[in-house]
Amino acid sequence: MSSTHRLAIVGTGGIAHLHADELRKHVPDRIELVAAVDPDASRLESFKDKFGVARGYTSIEDLLANEELDLVDLCTPPVLHAPGAIAALEAGVGVVCEKPPALSLEEFDRIAAASAASKGDFAVISQHRFGSAAERVRNMMASGVLGRLAVAKCDTLWFRPEEYFAVDWRGRWESEGGGPTMGHGIHQIDTLLSIVGPWAEVVATAHRHRRTTNTEDVSHAIVTLESGASVVITNSLLSPREVSQIRLDFDTATVELDHLYGYGDDNWTVHPIESAAEEVDRAWAAEPRGRASGHGAQFARIADALDGGAEPPVPLAESRRTLELLAAIYASAFTGTRVRAGEIDPTSPFYQRMNGSGTPWPDLK
């Protein structure tokens, strides 16, 4: 049975406005935005006025002490994700968190421990998983109509000018956790893994070609999946013609996604081989249809989970698998070695921080 769940947004920057808009458009009768948090009083008041939020607080501690909540929605800079999540979970409140969920595997595992001890759950925003076309591809894989995956690619080719990094937390390992691999490509990579399954090992490079950051501005990875299929991943902030792409080459068809920040059914194409065309086309024409990717689609699924007392999407284990691949890309890039799933344990510097033992370029002051 559907009911109204009380949510507070922590952080009132640009991404918080997007979340509030999506809540209002897609789940206005299911999730109620009751409070907001920001240490900047002017920004907080502006957000409250725009979205009709009754109460505002300057810290998450004040919020948790004064509100009865079902969910805290973390829209803060990445450096504040783990502290905010742990504070909410220790108060028994569920958390939905923008990407990346943590700055490191060590931080993520502390969040997971807090979630295990709490009546609240922890979920990561991974909105591109929830479009109907991605669900249809997963259904087609499960049915066997596509055969086995052989080759794939996953590209996040975006452009961020130098002035983008004037925001003090961007482009720094200690506050953003990484460059385009961590902060931008994570959504596309997570979507890929939600379709193709677990990864097994990776060989990667990372570069700081143009931007005056401490993090990379480009990375490349060759990933072998547990299934044996191979995937090439590129993440860039230096690409003037921006595009986000996934290509999947199966035995019977190539499936392609071409979009930028979100997709609908029309952003996907399927190219079957002649002998399988009728069967593949029939499966591709099936339901579900008409649901675009986006925060609203995921918030609807979160509301469903809260209604049923179930764990909200995306499960902790799957979120960690994605974050572990990002850590492995950095570890391979900065050590020049092949990295296998499970190798980055608490003894590894790449468990503690994504730049691990250090980058091949000097830090900027």
Summarize the helices and strands and which ones pair or pack.
Blueprint: E1 5-10, H1 14-26, E2 31-37, H2 41-51, E3 55-57, H3 60-66, E4 71-74, H4 81-90, E5 94-97, H5 105-116, E6 122-124, H6 132-143, E7 149-159, H7 173-176, H8 180-183, H9 185-196, E8 199-207, E9 218-225, E10 230-236, E11 238-250, E12 253-259, E13 268-272, H10 277-284, H11 295-308, H12 316-335, E14 339-340, H13 349-352
Parallel strand pairs: 1-2, 1-4, 2-3, 4-5, 5-6, 7-10
Antiparallel strand pairs: 7-11, 8-9, 8-14, 9-10, 11-12, 12-13
How is this structure best described in words?
With 365 residues, this protein is α/β, with parallel strands linked by helices. The protein has two domains: 5-127 and 296-311, Rossmann fold, CATH 3.40.50.720; 129-293 and 321-352, 2-Layer Sandwich (Dihydrodipicolinate Reductase, domain 2), CATH 3.30.360. Helix content is 36%, strand content 24%. The protein is built from 13 helices and 14 strands. It has helices at residues 14-26, 41-51, 60-66, 81-90, 105-116, 132-143, 173-176, 180-183, 185-196, 277-284, 295-308, 316-335, 349-352, and strands spanning 5-10, 31-37, 55-57, 71-74, 94-97, 122-124, 149-159, 199-207, 218-225, 230-236, 238-250, 253-259, 268-272, 339-340. The strands form two sheets. It has an eight-stranded mixed beta sheet with strand order 13-12-11-7-10-9-8-14. It has a six-stranded parallel beta sheet with strand order 3-2-1-4-5-6, sandwiched between helices. Strand 5 (94-97), helix 5 and strand 6 (122-124) form a beta-alpha-beta unit. The longest helix has 20 residues, at 316-335. It is globular. The model has no long low-confidence stretch (mean pLDDT 97).
